[in-house]
Amino acid sequence: MNKGVIVSLLSIGLAQGLKIPIHYVKEKEWRPELFFQTGGMPSSHSAGVSSLTTFIALKRGVPTADFALSLVYGLIVMYDAQGIRRQTGELTLKVNSLDELIDKIHHDESTVEFEEKTPKRLKEMLGHKPEEVLGGALLGLLAGYIGHLLTKNDSKTSGFTVN
After folding, report:
1. Which residues, at least 6 apart from 66, have a Cβ–Cβ distance to it below 8 Å?
2. pLDDT class for 4, splitting at 50, 70, 90?
3. How far apart are CA 14 and CA 52, in angstroms?
4. Which InterPro entries match (predicted)?
């Protein structure tokens, strides 16, 4: 199997697994279901693409088309993870707040006060904060480097062929 894919998938799994103890340390709440959810620290998107890019750079070299493709694709994925996807999650929180306001208006005839909620790490959060993307990228760099070390005795192209 393609060793670059293996390194990338393992780093994604590691990032997802690390979300559980990191959340526990921050919130004092054990939530194993975080392994299967998006968002949170570290970004598995960033870990996956940065580990693959690092692995390719070390196996094939930086001046290759493989590296260029992986780098550009990885930067787009990381930008999207903390940009568009995060904004979608924040919009979802606003919509949920409006839904609560409408419920209050229909069920309570007295004056309704509405307080806008600030985004928190909730199920609706689809994307990542910049520090979560950076954390995933650093984890991916480390995973890509370790993956390269573990396959160092292979030929230069064996990471990209079926063995």
Report:
1. 56, 60, 160
2. very high
3. 14
4. DUF212 (IPR003832)
CA atoms within a 13 Å half-sphere pointing along the CA-CB vector of 125: 15
Concatenating the DSSP letter of every residue in 79-146 gives HHHHTHHHHHHHHHHHHHHHHHHHHHHHH--S-----PPPP-S-TT--S--HHHHHHHHHHHHHHHHH
For residue 43 the two structure tokens come to: 């970004």
Residue pair 50/8 in contact by the 8 Å Cβ criterion: no
Quick one: which of 86, 69, 78 has its CA closest to 140? 78
The whole-model pTM stands at 0.69
Q: What is the mean pLDDT of the chain?
A: 80
> Are 136 and 17 spatial neighbours (Cβ–Cβ below 8 Å)?
no
